[in-house]
Amino acid sequence: MLLARLLMTKRILLATDGSESSRRALREAAAFARNGDMIRVIHTVEDPVTPVTSAFAKLIDLEQVRRDMQREGEEHLARAVLYLREEGLDPQAHLFDLRTTGETVPEAITREANEWGADIIIVGTHGRGGVRRAMLGSVAEQILRSAEVPVMLVAGEARPHSPLRAGGHYERILVALDDSETSRRAFEYALSLARAHAASLRVVHVLDMPGPFPEGFDSAPLLGAVRAVGEQALKWATRRLHEAGVPGDVELREVQPVGEGVADQIICAGKETDADVIVLGTHGRRGFRRFTLGSVAEDTARHAGRPVLLLPAHAPVE
């Protein structure tokens, strides 16, 4: 059912603010889209009146600031629309004045995604929201926490490659898999995405071994159990790859004991694979410890140097 949904016309919501990460997100949206997909590009204009600017109201023409911000937003949208049309797409463009809606940037983006029925939200992870800088830990993370659909995060420092290497399709997709339900849902999404784009899929399971242990403690049974869980997850993934007819492979990786985490291994696998996109669930387990958006997923998105597509635990996949 997920494949059928991905093969149908998709609704792609792209949030832009004119920053470098936003421009990269624009290119990734073009790579993600296929002929017939609908793209809606939105730009939010925040109210320049803040407690700080209010103190200087007599020195600053706030109405002129508002007009300048709106003009810049319209210019960002016009450039985005022109680029997407040159790539053979037919985008829509909308400018939202948050002064009139009373919303924050994340609230406006997620509301638009819900009302329009978006299938995915694509956003840069480091950008500008009006006059305030939007970091991964604020705007993008808030979008992901409240979004009801997958969210693709594109970092401003991502590699400067052209995503349209195969007529607009991805060629190599990487998905991180553990034994959680959310992770399996992310795998199924990545599997269907690979089929829709005729791409290969690499599946990695990262072992985050517990420890250190007290002297004299026999850790072999525990470590063996952790490894067995990973091997079982990859065995299941191998079977699903075969059933779906998707080319790919699986790999069991292990976190090094000093100074490394699960995200480091995922990022390393992405580089080795030269993945076009990394797919993750936002809530899963590493070893026996639960990881949240603030750890593995966020660290991967921040440092991967390539787009990271995150599937929230509550996002529908059927």
Features:
single chain; 318 residues; Rossmann fold; 10-stranded mixed sheet; 11 helices; 14 strands; globular
Largest sheet: 10 strands, mixed
Overall domain count = 2
Beta-strand percentage range = 15-25%
Write out the strand line-up for the largest beta sheet, numbering strands in chain order: 3-2-1-4-7-14-11-8-9-10
Average predicted confidence as pLDDT:
80
Question: Stretches where pLDDT falls below 50 for ≥5 residues?
Answer: 127-137, 160-167, 284-294
CATH fold-level topology of the largest domain:
Rossmann fold
The sequence of SSEs as H and E is HEHEHHEHHEEEHEEHEHEHEEEHE
Radius of gyration from the alpha-carbon trace, in angstroms: 21 Å
In terms of structural class, how would the helical and strand content be classed? alpha/beta
Distance between the termini: 6 Å
CATH first level of the largest domain: Alpha Beta
What is the CATH superfamily label of the largest domain? HUPs
Q: Number of helix segments?
A: 11
Record field, number of beta strands: 14
Question: Percent range for helical residues?
Answer: 40-55%
Oligomer: single chain
Topology:
Blueprint: H1 2-7, E1 11-15, H2 20-32, E2 38-45, H3 51-54, H4 62-86, E3 92-97, H5 98-101, H6 105-116, E4 120-124, E5 127-129, E6 132-134, H7 136-146, E7 151-154, E8 172-176, H8 181-197, E9 200-207, H9 220-244, E10 248-254, H10 262-273, E11 277-281, E12 284-286, E13 289-291, H11 293-303, E14 308-311
Parallel strand pairs: 1-2, 1-4, 2-3, 4-7, 8-9, 8-11, 9-10, 11-14
Antiparallel strand pairs: 5-6, 7-14, 12-13
Helix pairs in contact: 6-7, 7-11, 8-9, 10-11
